[in-house]
Amino acid sequence: MNDNPTISVLGTGRIGKMHAELIVRQVPGLDLHSVYDVYAEGAAAVAADLGVPAMSSVDDILASDVDAVAICSSTDTHVDLAVAAAQAGKAIFLEKPVSLNLAEVDRCVAAVNAAGVQLQMGFNRRFDAAHAAVQKAVADGAVGDVQMVKITSRDPAPPPIEYIKVSGGIFCDMTIHDFDMARFVTGSEVTEVYAKGAVMIDPAIGEAGDVDTAVVMLTHENGVITTIDNSRQAVYGYDQRVEVFGSAGMAVSENPREHTAEVHTADGTRQQNIPYFFLERYIPSYLAEWHAFVEGLSSGTMPLTIEDGRAPLVIGLAAWMSVREGRPVKTSEVSA
Amino acid sequence: MNDNPTISVLGTGRIGKMHAELIVRQVPGLDLHSVYDVYAEGAAAVAADLGVPAMSSVDDILASDVDAVAICSSTDTHVDLAVAAAQAGKAIFLEKPVSLNLAEVDRCVAAVNAAGVQLQMGFNRRFDAAHAAVQKAVADGAVGDVQMVKITSRDPAPPPIEYIKVSGGIFCDMTIHDFDMARFVTGSEVTEVYAKGAVMIDPAIGEAGDVDTAVVMLTHENGVITTIDNSRQAVYGYDQRVEVFGSAGMAVSENPREHTAEVHTADGTRQQNIPYFFLERYIPSYLAEWHAFVEGLSSGTMPLTIEDGRAPLVIGLAAWMSVREGRPVKTSEVSA
Amino acid sequence: MNDNPTISVLGTGRIGKMHAELIVRQVPGLDLHSVYDVYAEGAAAVAADLGVPAMSSVDDILASDVDAVAICSSTDTHVDLAVAAAQAGKAIFLEKPVSLNLAEVDRCVAAVNAAGVQLQMGFNRRFDAAHAAVQKAVADGAVGDVQMVKITSRDPAPPPIEYIKVSGGIFCDMTIHDFDMARFVTGSEVTEVYAKGAVMIDPAIGEAGDVDTAVVMLTHENGVITTIDNSRQAVYGYDQRVEVFGSAGMAVSENPREHTAEVHTADGTRQQNIPYFFLERYIPSYLAEWHAFVEGLSSGTMPLTIEDGRAPLVIGLAAWMSVREGRPVKTSEVSA
Amino acid sequence: MNDNPTISVLGTGRIGKMHAELIVRQVPGLDLHSVYDVYAEGAAAVAADLGVPAMSSVDDILASDVDAVAICSSTDTHVDLAVAAAQAGKAIFLEKPVSLNLAEVDRCVAAVNAAGVQLQMGFNRRFDAAHAAVQKAVADGAVGDVQMVKITSRDPAPPPIEYIKVSGGIFCDMTIHDFDMARFVTGSEVTEVYAKGAVMIDPAIGEAGDVDTAVVMLTHENGVITTIDNSRQAVYGYDQRVEVFGSAGMAVSENPREHTAEVHTADGTRQQNIPYFFLERYIPSYLAEWHAFVEGLSSGTMPLTIEDGRAPLVIGLAAWMSVREGRPVKTSEVSA
To answer: What is the number of alpha carbons within 13 Å of residue B56 lying toward its C-beta?
Structure first.
């Protein structure tokens, strides 16, 4: 009766659960087939809530007639699942990052390309209305030839140290979104990376081998210079801004406010804070990402491919090399 | 198994359908029992989409064990349905306006009070985060003694003439929200109304006996002066602002933007428009309204009562009298 | 050697002193000839500071070859001085209001017109860059047919009671600027006035026969409805905003901030206040007013004439009648 | 009679003329003694306009009883004039940069310190109300421990090529203001510089040996990382922003608008541009700089000293070394 494509969500942690709920409640052209998680009870609860089966194995899912899988499990499982799904001929939605290991990413790229399946990387920020409008202003020529890009990306509070330990470090976990944004708004690959990192928020982050504060300068193939600044702790909220400067002007995406009320007194004007939690800011972008996926299934062209998953990891690895060696690093120096 | 209260939505037009969807998808503490519409096919489609039964009569619904009804049908049916629901002991969510006829409103007030059932009027704007923050700033004393209030409320485009003909006119259909807002942010009843109306947008609106542009001045019991301006057509979007001025300062709710991107060129800065469609702006307020209803069912106190449905109608009727007679009118001059 | 026109400033109180200083320091095309004040010591100090003579009588000034006079003395002396200056063939810059007495205004109009001298009324706000841009947007058609105007005009603190007693009351002293603004941005005369006034700030203002809080609704010849709100005390600063709404959009002038710094913390965002003192906000408009005067001397056409001094007084008198009688008043009801 | 200190302005080009005018018209506590320029006609015109003598030699000025000199001549004359003035015991206002040659700067530092005269460097942006409020927020602890600083500094259009050729290049001419700002808001010296420069606007700038687009990353002694971006051509105006991020929040200075009018239509909201010309933005800061100088003469402590002139030049020279060598450069590597 219903000829919507179907999808199974693999991994029902915070982000997988959100994707499953969005698909069921707000994506009319896609049907949730089932969910799966190694933690079976978690999958069962999500399945019950959404009225779909919780499957007991990925093999069962790949053997079914489901059209697509959303890979939302822990990063270390991404490549194996994506390769298996590709070989089973399923379309794939793949959460970032593909992997922290470039050789593994290359194995995934090869398998996906060999199978010829459709794959969309989950870089949701491309679908944020404000950031997308910045990219569109560039594409429409409103800012002329792009010369400089500035990206601010700051979390409200650091994640647990246990998470940081397996995250690949700030550049592969957090800045990777900004590397994708830099490629998105400029439409140009990155050739050189200079990065500075520091531990300013929590010494435990440093003990885990990571930094919590970072500034990165990227040089693109077309000469554009991108600057990115990251912090794991902006106490005023989830600070996410993009600025593209060019020969004809500037396009920026500012932070929204939680709401628009202002109070004016003798002491000045007080505005509401920006959103604190990333879901407050970005839920509409996750939803738009799914609409794009449905559109991609139908048109045959996904807006982000597996190559869009590989490139930011290379930049992230170059950033780490730059921090360790205290010098600008060519992305061509990074190898699997 | 599930001991959530249940509700049946009566009327599945645009607003009733929205309420039913919100209840199912985003109000965890309330279960949708069923839907009903005199246009059975409409109800059936909504019911199928949401996985609940479409009932064939209101009597069946009131005879069932449902806990509450949401009255979202056409205005002329509100009072009969509310009286019947009250007599059946159901809690009631009642869309605005109660009725265009004050005697009918009084019959409804009497029935609801006699039955002792809980009732929440559907003035959703009280639940908008920005407007609510303005009211909270007043309640917290941040603006001191309130002296003047300004409310701007402009639609992006007029409704169909057929709708206007049965709407009660701009003051009872559109401004009634602003009358409620004036009572909400001041916490004081309105004693006098002076209104000017004009037909500036579409002569057909005038031929239907209505105006499309209006300015209203209210005097409150506590001396505060409120000014409201309305237009049926703000081409730049759905313009909704509240400003409260007092001895210690001013609280305002500004319009949000559709998104926060800006483009700066030699010609100036261009920002995105404000939302065009009322649902874009106010969906979160409708949702917050339901959370308040659930809370009210449990606590026994609804944030808006049937009296909050009556008062703005009196003001609207006084506004019409003021326009007709070209003079300030006391609300005490309005009688059923 | 220098063939700039010359001007003598009559009245060297706060506003006259400011005008004299502006002319000397920032108006290259106009030379300050001399100053005069009934309080000779005040005039002498200003004269010494600016390097011009302080004259001992107005007669001496009018008998000299000075080209123009700026009448900045107390309101009750305006008409006598303007009539004498007109009869002496001098161009006139006249501070608002012309007079509080309409018969006197008419005498002034007659004398100025009979003499055929040039006269510019000192309604400086027309020359504020933001308000002027609003008017220009209207004139350029950017807002389409004007339908509603809203003017907010609030002082940071009340003037001394002694001043209030001779001021003509809020409508002829303070709102008169807003009546001029309403005429300026609409380009249409006012036919009807409805006003509410209240004493909310200082009972002594009421005892002096005045109000400190007022809301006024104007109907223009072309049907536009203007709403004005005034307060003698906005603790957050000198609040001056104009909003013009029409069939094609809306033009607004917002308040500037003292500076653009913002501080974002966990408690929200704090912006600097708007200017507190009227000179902080409006000095550039006073300067632009002088440039327009110089231009008018040369072109033969002043941007504001004595008629622009009469019309707002009629509106102010109608506003007082409306408050006293509690009804809308036609401007045609006001007579000398 | 008048016991104000006196000052002679050396150099009456654009900036010297501005300073002389400000001193005469808006700095009550300082008297303009005379002006001088190698181009005698230029000096004569300014002198005539301001009513002071144009002196025929610097020697005459230094031999007079003038209290101070303002050195506003071309950069290559700064040190000789400053040394001579110091030896003559005059207080000195010195425009930036001290010199493009570090050995010369050191000679100046030595002479000024040996003479014990007061000297204020002309870094006017420290006196901009918004930037100063950012620094004050840092000093007051409102942003906590500073972690990152971002400075955007873009000119509306490039200067003439002839100027660029003698300017010392972008880092010593334009970015030097930002290096000063970085030291000002952090209160910490810079230890390392990494810079990228590019020619994106005009090839002639490249042929002159300069760049027109630059991004610089500074590491401060206290660990703070500052990022600066510069362009010689922002078509939307003179873009000047500072952002300080720390453990307790963020302080920013945004660009002001030329005025506050906005036009809202179906196509979005259009705001006025930011100021295009640097004087439009920064005149009040030049004025505040003079008030600080007068205060410094009296208190004995200048807010900026000759050391504040030396430090940014070192950073600028390090930036050039970084661009040439493609690596981060320690400021300790720069020597005279």
So the answer is: 0
Nearest CA to B247 out of D267, D330, C232, D195 is that of C232
Nearest-by-Cβ selection for B219 from C196, C200, C233: C196
Maximum C-alpha span of chain B:
68
Phi-psi region of C268 (alpha: psi -120 to 50; beta: other; left: phi over 0): left
Report the C-alpha dihedral over residues A66, A68, A74, A77, rounded to 10 degrees. 80
Give the C-alpha separation, D95 to C26, whole Å: 25
Instruction: Please write the tens of the pLDDT for every residue from A52-70.
Output: 999 999 999 999 999 999 9
* C158 min Cα distance to partner chain A (Å): 15
What is this structure's pTM?
A: 0.96
Which residue, among A146, A102, A169, has the nearest Cα to A322 in the 3D structure? A169
Burial C171-180 (b: 16+ CB within 10 A, else e): bbbbbbbbbb
Locate B157 and state its tokens. Answer: 């485009």
Helical (H) or strand (E) element with C197:
strand C190-198
Q: Please list the residues that pair with D153 across neighbouring strands.
A: D230, D240
Q: Which residues of C275-301 are buried (b: 16+ CB within 10 A; e: fewer)?
A: bbebeebbbebbbbbbbbbbebbeeee
d(CA D234, CA D155): 6
For β-strands B213-220 and A213-220, DSSP reports them as unpaired
The pair of three-digit structure tokens given for residue C260, joined into one six-digit string: 């653009």
Q: C184, C77, C172: which is closest to C124 by C-alpha?
A: C184
Q: Would you tell me how many other CB atoms lie within 10 Å of the CB of residue B145? A: 14
Q: How far apart are CA A206 and CA A198, in angstroms?
A: 8
Closest chain C C-alpha to D18 CA, distance in angstroms: 13
D14 near C CB under 8 A: no
Residues paired with residue C91 on neighbouring β-strands, in sequence order: C68
Checking if the pLDDT of A2 tops 70, the result is: no
> C261 - beta bridge partners?
D253
In D58-134, the DSSP E strands lie at: 68-71, 91-95, 119-122
Gap between the Cα atoms of D229 and A151, Å rounded: 12
Q: What is the C-alpha separation between D192 and D205, in angstroms, rounded?
A: 26
Residues 290-329 of D with CB under 8 A from A: 326-328
Long-range CB pairs of B104-109, under 8 A, 24+ apart, other chains included = B104/B79, B105/B79, B105/B309, B105/B310, B105/B313, B105/B336, B106/B310, B106/B336, B107/B79, B107/B83, B108/B78, B108/B79, B108/B82, B108/B83, B108/B306, B108/B309, B109/B306, B109/B307, B109/B309, B109/B310
| Sign, CA torsion A124/A127/A132/A136 | positive
> Which stretches within C77-228 are classed as H helix?
78-87, 102-115, 129-139, 161-165, 169-173, 175-186, 203-207
In sequence order, the 6+-apart residues with CB closer than 8 A to the CB of A148 are A224, A225, A226, A227, A244, A245, D213, D215, D229, D231
With beta carbons less than 8 A apart as the criterion, state whether C282 and C138 touch. no
Instruction: From B65, B44, B69, B42, select the one nearest B54 (Cα to Cα).
Output: B44
Q: What are D122-176's pLDDT values in tens digits?
A: 999 999 999 999 999 999 999 999 999 999 999 999 999 999 999 999 999 999 9
Residue A218 phi, psi (nearest 5): -110, 140
Closest residue on chain B to A21 (Cα): B25
Residue A34: strand, helix, or coil: strand
ipTM of this predicted structure = 0.95
Residues in chain A, total: 336
| Rounded-to-integer distance, Cα B61 and Cα B35, Å | 9
Q: What is the pLDDT of residues A169-204, one digit of tens each?
A: 999 999 999 999 999 999 999 999 999 999 999 999
On whether any CB of chain D is under 8 Å from the CB of C107, the answer is no
Assess C272–D contact: CB distance below 8 Å, yes or no.
yes
Name the stretches of chain C with pLDDT < 50.
1
